[in-house]
Amino acid sequence: MSQPPDASDPLSVACERVGRFLYFFSRLEMQLDAAIAKLFKLDAKVAPIVTVNIDFARKLYIVQSAVQYQNENTSKKINTVVDFGEVNEANMDRQVIAHDSFEPDGAEAVQFKRSTARKKLQEVDPRWTKDKFENSYRKLQEHEANLKKMVDEIDADRWVSALFTSPPGLPAHLTQFSDPGWLARISSIDPPSEK
Fold first, then answer.
1. Cβ neighbours of residue 111 under 8 Å, at least 6 residues apart?
2. Which domain does 159 fall in, by range?
3. CB distance 47 to 36 below 8 Å
4. Is 80 helix (H, G, I), strand (E, B) or coil?
5. How many other C-beta atoms can be found within 10 angstroms of the C-beta atom of residue 167?
């Protein structure tokens, strides 16, 4: 195990806190990747081809929707409670930590410099204390553990069969294409004349 950062070096402390947050967050995201791999029955060797190309929020939406679908449409319920809203909030924190510059603020806090430009420029400079970091580590570990339990409860067979079984009928906007003669009718229409 590595040595704890030297408390007399605030930059080392700040870097260790930021790095530890990213470590725990990456472990949480690994559980979303595992859920997606299980949902779609992806081989472990090829699953990263899919999961690395999906951003965190979309992974979360896929897993949350699959859990809801399984709980509403099958007898095998997922009993593990995952607060997907809190997991999304953790992602918002990750965006600050991963994308914003930071400096130590005293011996134990970290000051981030964050600018956003949605409709207008805003500067928000969140300050994270030692307690905020430690609470975040604890919450990330709880979310990771809950997601791991939830992955074990996913009924992949039920999910995949529902996903790839087409429901009776098509949505109204696609019904015209269910008639085999639609292409012939379109092909026989004379193009507009040029004048």
1. 102, 103, 104, 105, 125, 126, 127
2. 10-169
3. yes
4. coil
5. 7
What total of structural domains would you count in the chain? 1
The whole-angstrom separation of Cα 138 and Cα 132 is 10
Tell me if 49 sits within 8 A of 55, measured CB to CB.
no
The whole-angstrom separation of Cα 139 and Cα 131 is 12
pTM to 2 decimals?
Answer: 0.78
Tokens linked to 190 = 């004379």
Parts of the chain with a pLDDT under 70: 1-7, 159-195
Those residues with Cβ within 8 angstroms of residue 55's Cβ, 6 or more apart along the chain or in another chain: none
On whether the CB atoms of residues 154 and 66 are closer than 8 A, the answer is yes
pLDDT in tens, 95-135: 999 999 999 999 999 999 988 888 998 888 999 999 999 99
Rounded CA-CA distance 122/114 in Å is 8
Is residue 30 situated within a structural domain? yes
Element (H, E) at 110: strand 109-118
In a domain, 100, yes or no: yes
pLDDT of residue 185: 53
Residue at 28: amino acid letter: L
